[in-house]
Amino acid sequence: MATQMQMRYGCNPHQAPARCYRRDGGELPLEVLNGAPSYINLMDALNSWPLVRELAAATGLPAAASFKHVSPAGAAVAVPLSQELRESYFVDDMDLSPLATAYARARGADRLASFGDWIALSETVDGPTAALIGREVSDGVIAPAYTAEALALLRPKKDGKYPILAIDPDYTPPLVETRDVFGLTLEQRRNDFVPGDEFLANVVTRRQDLPPAARRDLLVATIAVKYTQSNSVCLALDGQVIGSGAGQQSRVHCVRLAASKADNWFLRQHPRVRGMRFAPQVRRAERINAIDLYLQEEATPAELQAWEANFEEVPARLTAAERRAWLDGLAGVALSSDAFFPFRDSVDRARRSGVEYLVQAGGSLRDDLVVAAADEYGMVMVCSGVRLFTH
Question: Is 231 known to be catalytic?
Fold first, then answer.
């Protein structure tokens, strides 16, 4: 492996030249198998890889992440898909391996946000996973290795310029990390905390039970939130993130954003959405945009007129009552917050999106009021004592 890597440019095209190297002069743990990654590609790759490595280690399942702008749009482990989800994720015509299933789930969390994503995979990339990546719009992929079949399927993407990175799975970065900001160097201990069963030990609500699926989903949400730009909250269900609220200045806005994305994720499984009859010329990305507009409660006449052109038969829009009735079926959702809840408003909003299990750092002056709110709803809340900010 090389000791440095030239990048196409830095964060923006006018920021050139740009390169990646180790301060100690050692070899990079990365090998470029195809294409030329940019600065943003590498930022996504080097944040998404540890996420999927930790997810796989914590759950014993293949893991995948769909990354955009240094935060996961989705992350998941290989839990089998229902027929409804296969249709919602546009993979009902594919034979999926466990790794491909993990990526289908990661991409399916927020397909609108995942357009042009960076992909991270915890295992050797196989043919079915490469076939799925091949039909989606993405900016590159990082994994420990690739089969010959997978490379043959991936290399032609983007006219042969698709970035494919292989990373040494045994590489561990130094315990101390540095970062240059405005000419000054900041130094800190790397965030090497990985949540396990002990992370969920301090249940503070009257209800105490945490079934295995809830424990798995809390770990998925927590590991995802650890790699999400703060403030952040992640919601998870069935081994995958279903809503992420990243980079908000207030905690409740994180919850509102994550919960609204989870609502859309669940609404995309509504029979009326899965039964949409699109016009033959409408491509997958345009279908995703059309579904997103369909799920918006407000749309202008001009937007609706353009939207109707996507269909052979224009579907009736969901009424507010129909939306609420469907969303009332969303249950058993796990939520992880990267810091404490200062008020009960986050718990109130989370409940409307089916949240039943929560983990937060605790330590607010109003912890008692937040726990009381969780008790009102019959939730299970863990106060972990661990803050997971990332900037």
Answer: yes
